[in-house]
User: What shape does this take?
Amino acid sequence: MSLAGPLVKVASKLMLRFGGAVTFRRVTNGVYNPTTGTITEGITDTAIKGVLEDVVSREVAGLVRAGDKKLTIAANDLPVVPTIADQILLNTRKLQIIEVRTIEQDNTPITYELILRD
Assistant: This one.
């Protein structure tokens, strides 16, 4: 018997109870406009709950810098897998996803840890 199913449910319940409100923004390439010569972005927003914290000093390496934030969200709360092309909206701030870390059990995503930067 796999632990993945119950862990997915527990992660969603914990985020719902203890997480703060954030907006996950999926940004995709849209349609090319030949008149203006531009490509519009497709934007899809999803309201979710997550736990936001500062990156600790031992996590600072590679792409991760001091001052970055870490947002933990339940994988089941998102209809898509987050990528570095996506954004997080927190109040009036637009944060770019720098890195996506997946916590999984039996190849089933339980939570995503998103490293964010202003």
